[in-house]
């Protein structure tokens, strides 16, 4: 059995999967077997080593070599940002909360406006948040002043006529004073 140690170094900015293909060759450069080695995720600026094995023996017993055939790098996509993470990032970007403020279960005193989705996701440092803007109370409708009763220049008699007098005998010829 023959083995070769292979090391990959990720020089990219994010995680990547690596696939390496090597050929074991004889002294005359003829391929004897091909081996594919999967490295899995290699972190940014990280290295990883694997060993490729081959059960071969050169026909001429003169030696065995290894030739690198291919190195394939697949960028690992970043996990999709959850709605909660987006909300947290937005609150930080807008200066509503300081960077690094932890969030978790909402205390009973936390106003609902500081919940992110539900009571299980709340800024832990609720007291550091600015007060909510006051909601203006709409003004109460104003009622028009009541219409004053008409002012007559005297006394209304029972027959509907108006007398300018106000003393004894007023409306005596008109059926008395009206109700």
Write structural notes for this entry.
By secondary structure, the chain is mainly β. It is built from 1 helix and 10 strands. The strands form 4 sheets. Strands 3-2-5 form a 3-stranded antiparallel beta sheet, with no helix packed on it. The termini are far apart. Residues 124-128 have low confidence and may be disordered.
What is the N-to-C succession of helices and strands? Answer: EEEEEHEEEEE
E-strand count: 10
Q: Largest sheet, order of strands side by side? A: 3-2-5
Task: Please tell me how large the radius of gyration is.
Answer: 47 Å
The tally of helices reads: 1
Detail the topology: elements first, then pairings.
Layout: E1 2-9, E2 16-25, E3 31-42, E4 47-54, E5 65-75, H1 83-93, E6 103-104, E7 115-116, E8 118-123, E9 155-156, E10 162-163
Antiparallel strand pairs: 1-4, 2-3, 2-5, 6-8, 7-8, 9-10
Keywords:
three-stranded antiparallel β-sheet; mainly beta; 179 residues
Write a brief caption for the model.
The protein is mostly beta strands. It has one helix at residues 83-93; strands spanning 2-9, 16-25, 31-42, 47-54, 65-75, 103-104, 115-116, 118-123, 155-156, 162-163.
